[in-house]
Amino acid sequence: MPSVTYMNQWGGWGGRGRSFNPFEFAAGLFDPDQADKNKDSEDFSPETDVFDTPSSFYIHISLPGAKKEDVGVNWDAEKSELSIAGVIYRPGDEDFLKTLAMDERKVGPFERKIRLGTRANPAQIDAEGITAKLEDGVLRVEVPKLEKEGFVEVRKVDIE
């Protein structure tokens, strides 16, 4: 199915990291069960805050109900991209889950990719210093920047 990525009123790309599919939207208008099927089959993209300080990037990802063993954090230096992926499970056994009367929480597989810097000017990151801590439903990732040299090295080239 074709999808459309749109810009929202705040200048970000819409759908909280998702693309808008007009066919799925229209199907949900006429068949609410179809909307639920589409919602359940897609990964979701958790809400994220990114702070850019002189020494580090700090990324806070909202993951209520996630366990640290079910979440992975990876740094791709080539793309200058931090990738957070995993799964959030709904607690309870199968019989209990069959009694679900209201379904509002985001559960299931998720993925969020965050580019630090730009393609033309990627962030200079100390990959060995990246740390992550999951506490109170928030994953906190610190991505330290490499120290910038206070001077520019100029090398004299001898002419033959």
Automatic annotation (TrEMBL):
InterPro entries membership: A-crystallin/Hsp20_dom, HSP20-like_chaperone, Small_HSP
Matches recorded under Gene3D superfamilies: 2.60.40.790
Residue ranges of every copy of the SHSP domain listed in the record: 39-160
Annotated segments matching region Disordered: 31-50
Superkingdom of this protein's organism: Eukaryota
Keywords from the UniProt entry: Stress response
Entry keyword annotation includes NAD: no
Similarity comment: family membership: Belongs to the small heat shock protein (HSP20) family.
Protein name as catalogued: HSP20-like chaperone
Organism name: Aaosphaeria arxii CBS 175.79
Lineage: Eukaryota, Fungi, Dikarya, Ascomycota, Pezizomycotina
